[in-house]
């Protein structure tokens, strides 16, 4: 049986319903995926606009929520930074769906390898058992592991815009709209909730440029974020806004995406390109480090408490970014309760996309949208109506900016999420975070038998 | 361990139970079949979590976290390997309490001591202490539901490694029994709430071999948290004034969750409630400071301390031991582990004798580092 064309679409439909596909189709799919992935370099080139996602960990229904919030494939370009499997109940359906989408829309979705895409780790953390349970044999696990070996180790996003075209979505009820900077400003960061409401907006503290841009801007709709226009669902900020943002900005550096982080054995991206990646994740060495390491508040390098990879400090990141002409490293791998966390003056960001991780942690999830330089093609506003309005839960803070005096509690919390944005050598790309919560309980079809030992009892 | 002590969730459901403290027997007749079925499911869920605790211990032993030759003897299910973060959590909890108990037993080692373990379940501590301190003058008591003590005694009768530790010549293990009594080890089958309900008309049940004048350590690992705060206070008062004379040095070690109000804590409460598990004192004493104050108010006035298990892992475990434990398994769940460890605490409080001099607990625990 072949899985080309309509068969593939049928498999996608079936997987979207969270139903596994037959073993022979998995074999065929994995074969096709390998053929595709083998052509990719260790570091895949990706053009903005793109939406960058962190760990999924088999939380299928939350992956569906992610697509609802971020836009569907192929309308939105996606880059998933690994850890598709393990821990959640639906690793198989989640990974196979992503793989189907990769085979169906190879230029629209990029998958890179996480430390859980490994034979050894999946036997400890659940994916192996899940395959065995769902198919009665480990063949499917084996096919998937063969695909893991071909996944790229990183991605390099180029062509991202330095400024966001502001969303003209409504401001969340929980936010004081007075605090939202004017949409004409040079918007560096915007945080939206799952309904597309603005939770936070931060204007780059530059200068004459942004006021020049605001002079040139005659787009009434996007310059009045205070007056929500929820009925307007068309593309945001066309016309004057676009040209003003596009033409007057200096270019941002590239964005390196990798699951874990840096390696003491790697000082240039070209050295990543030279690795032999088509193997099980080794216990040590550069490939292992890229998938296992974590940034930490230390100087230089440190031993990782995970037993693999290293800890690396701000100096390492700044040096690496400078040497490789990067403005940002995006990585996943660490649970962050707020869904994302910028560190080291916004030179590195952790993106975490598994809400209420392991159905236990209570965290929200996030995805990171990077727009295309010189146009607004990347930002199509999502509809607001599906769940009704109203700000919910997590308030990421008001909008005085990370350095404002008299910080409120929200601001203090915010600046731990968003690093100090000042004084960076290279302007980072405009960053739009969409933050979302776990899919509603009733939609997730929790298995009757809950996993044991959730808590210490 | 005391998962088994999740007792009797039916009495937590309120007045329609008729308030029977030994709810397992009472009030059955009035309910329809579906309700009966529901209760059966619930009961078996409770038994499942009990064996789950035993299984967690076995997992830790098999992987080398803990040295406990007795753990597997109480586990009835085939062992399954637990996730590394759960193994680490079980390790921290067990070694933290071991640490406090060791300090107690090694302070004035020749003087007699008493331990009362509430909701002891399948806990192996008595047997481990017997090996570690063969000369200690220790009187050990375990209190738990009859169904749990029956199962425990079944295991003890079955395995010679266990019953050979007991003076069975003079104090035989009787078949099918749910209780055991000897000068060194006692298993008391009872519902802890019967200690709270007592009044002058109905005095608390007799606990054979409990010595009212020997320095006594009371242990509650995930046990009292399943009861109402007022019930817990009454139970502790019964121990401190009825079973023990008011001048006897006494202490309490609690191991239980804290921080119910943050995202992780709220999720925990909601997840457990879907399993019909309610933790009333978690919200009554949400933070470490609340735990310390309740210890003091209960009468442990000479010391009342607490630390979360993350603090304990960082500060009580030696660097060499940390390295040993970290090398046992690759642990990918670091952030989750930190979250989990921050949401469980050990709190310990004591009263010295009335003499005004420093007594055994002050000497044993004064230097133990708490979280400030
Ligand atoms: Mn990871």
TrEMBL record, chain A:
Its EC number is 3.1.3.16. Keywords: Hydrolase, Manganese, Metal-binding. It comes from the Eukaryota. Signal peptide: none annotated. GO terms for molecular function: metal ion binding; protein serine/threonine phosphatase activity. It catalyses: O-phospho-L-threonyl-[protein] + H2O = L-threonyl-[protein] + phosphate. Coiled coil: none annotated. It holds the Pfam family Metallophos. Residues 112-117 form the Serine/threonine specific protein phosphatases domain. Residues 211-247, 390-411, 438-457 are annotated as: Disordered. Gene3D superfamilies: 3.60.21.10. Residues 400-409 have a biased composition (Polar residues). CDD domains: MPP_PP2A_PP4_PP6. It is an enzyme of class 3 (hydrolase). Belongs to the PPP phosphatase family. This is Serine/threonine-protein phosphatase.
TrEMBL record, chain B:
Residues 1-49 are annotated as: Disordered. S-adenosyl-L-methionine binds at residues 93, 119, 191-192, 221. Residues 34-45 have a biased composition (Basic and acidic residues). Its EC number is 2.1.1.233. InterPro entries: LCMT1, Ppm1/Ppm2/Tcmp, SAM-dependent_MTases_sf. GO terms for biological process: methylation. GO terms for molecular function: protein C-terminal leucine carboxyl O-methyltransferase activity. Residues 16-32 have a biased composition (Gly residues). Methylates the carboxyl group of the C-terminal leucine residue of protein phosphatase 2A catalytic subunits to form alpha-leucine ester residues. This is Leucine carboxyl methyltransferase 1.
């Amino acid at each position: 049986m072949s899985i080309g064309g309509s068969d593939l679409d049928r498999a996608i439909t079936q997987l979207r319903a969270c139903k596994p596909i037959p073993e022979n189709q998995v074999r065929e799919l994995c074969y096709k995926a390998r053929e595709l992935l083998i052509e990719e370099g260790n570091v895949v080139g990706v053009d903005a606009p793109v939406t960058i996602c962190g760990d999924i960990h088999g939380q299928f229904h939350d992956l569906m929520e992610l697509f609802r919030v971020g836009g569907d494939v192929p309308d939105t370009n996606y880059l998933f930074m690994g850890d598709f499997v393990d821990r959640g109940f639906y690793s198989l359906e989640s990974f196979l769906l992503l793989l189907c989408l990769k085979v169906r829309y190879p230029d629209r979705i990029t998958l890179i390898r996480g430390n859980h895409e490994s034979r050894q780790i999946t036997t400890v953390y659940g994916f192996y058992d899940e395959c065995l349970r769902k198919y009665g044999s480990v063949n499917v696990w084996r096919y998937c592991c063969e695909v893991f070996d071909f996944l790229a180790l990183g991605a390099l996003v180029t062509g991202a815009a330095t400024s966001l075209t502001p969303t003209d979505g409504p401001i969340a009820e929980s936010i004081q709209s007075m605090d939202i900077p004017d949409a004409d400003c040079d918007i560096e960061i915007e945080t939206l909730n799952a309904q597309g409401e603005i939770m936070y907006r931060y204007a780059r503290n530059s200068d004459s440029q942004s006021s020049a841009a605001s002079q040139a801007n005659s787009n009434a709709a996007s310059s009045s974020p205070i007056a929500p226009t929820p009925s307007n669902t068309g593309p945001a900020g066309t016309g004057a806004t676009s040209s003003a943002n596009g033409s007057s900005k200096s270019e941002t550096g590239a964005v390196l995406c990798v699951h874990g982080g840096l390696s003491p054995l790697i000082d240039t991206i070209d050295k990543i390109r030279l690795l032999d990646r088509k193997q099980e994740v080794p216990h040590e060495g550069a490939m292992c480090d890229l998938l296992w390491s974590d940034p930490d508040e230390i100087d230089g390098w440190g031993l990782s408490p995970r037993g693999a990879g290293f800890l690396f400090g701000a100096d390492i990141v700044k040096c690496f970014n400078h040497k490789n002409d990067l403005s940002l490293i995006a990585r996943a791998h660490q649970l962050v309760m707020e869904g994302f966390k910028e560190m080291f003056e916004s030179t590195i960001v952790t993106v975490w996309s598994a809400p209420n991780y392991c159905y236990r942690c209570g965290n929200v999830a996030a995805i990171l949208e990077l727009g295309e330089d010189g146009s607004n093609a990347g930002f199509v506003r999502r509809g607001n109506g599906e769940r009704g309005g109203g700000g919910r839960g997590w308030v990421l803070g008001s909008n005085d900016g990370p350095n404002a005096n008299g910080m409120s509690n929200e601001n203090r919390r915010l600046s731990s999420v968003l690093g100090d944005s000042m004084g960076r050598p290279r302007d980072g790309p405009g960053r739009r975070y969409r933050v979302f919560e776990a899919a509603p309980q009733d939609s997730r079809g929790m298995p009757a038998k809950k996993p044991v030992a959730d808590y210490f009892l | 361990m005391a998962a088994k002590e999740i007792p009797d969730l039916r009495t937590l459901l309120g007045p329609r139970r008729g308030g029977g403290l030994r709810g397992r027997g009472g009030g059955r007749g009035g309910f329809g079949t579906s309700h009966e079925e529901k209760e059966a499911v619930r009961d078996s869920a409770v038994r499942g979590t009990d064996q789950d605790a035993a299984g967690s211990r076995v997992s830790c032993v098999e992987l080398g976290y803990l040295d406990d030759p007795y753990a597997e003897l109480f586990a009835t299910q085939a062992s399954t390997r637990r996730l590394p973060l759960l193994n680490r959590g079980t390790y921290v909890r067990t070694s933290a309490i071991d640490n406090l108990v060791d300090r107690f037993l090694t302070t004035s080692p020749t003087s007699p001591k008493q331990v009362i373990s509430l909701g002891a379940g399948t806990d192996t501590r008595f047997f481990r202490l017997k090996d570690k301190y063969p000369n200690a003058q220790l009187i050990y008591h375990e209190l738990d539901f009859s169904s749990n003590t029956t199962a425990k005694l079944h295991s003890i009768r079955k395995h010679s490694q266990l019953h050979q530790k007991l003076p069975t010549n003079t104090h035989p293990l009787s078949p099918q029994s749910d209780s055991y009594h000897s000068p060194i080890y006692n298993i008391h089958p009872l519902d802890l709430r019967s200690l709270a309900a007592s009044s002058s008309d109905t005095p608390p049940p007799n606990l054979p071999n409990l010595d009212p004048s020997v320095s006594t350590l009371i242990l509650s690992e995930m046990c009292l948290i399943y009861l109402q705060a007022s019930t817990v206070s009454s139970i502790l008062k019964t121990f401190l004034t009825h079973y023990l004379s008011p001048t006897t040095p006494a202490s309490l070690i609690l191991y239980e969750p804290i921080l119910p109000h943050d995202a992780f804590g709220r999720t925990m409460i909601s997840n457990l409630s879907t399993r019909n598990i309610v933790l009333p004192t978690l919200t009554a004493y949400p933070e470490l400071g609340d735990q310390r104050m309740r210890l003091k108010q209960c009468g442990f006035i000479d010391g009342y301390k607490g630390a979360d298990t993350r603090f304990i892992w960082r500060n009580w475990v030696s660097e060499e031991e940390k390295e040993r434990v970290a090398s046992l398994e690759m642990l990918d769940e670091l952030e989750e582990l930190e979250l989990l460890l921050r949401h469980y605490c050990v709190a310990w409080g004591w009263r010295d004798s009335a003499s005004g001099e420093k007594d055994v607990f002050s000497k044993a625990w004064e230097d133990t580092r708490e979280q400030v």
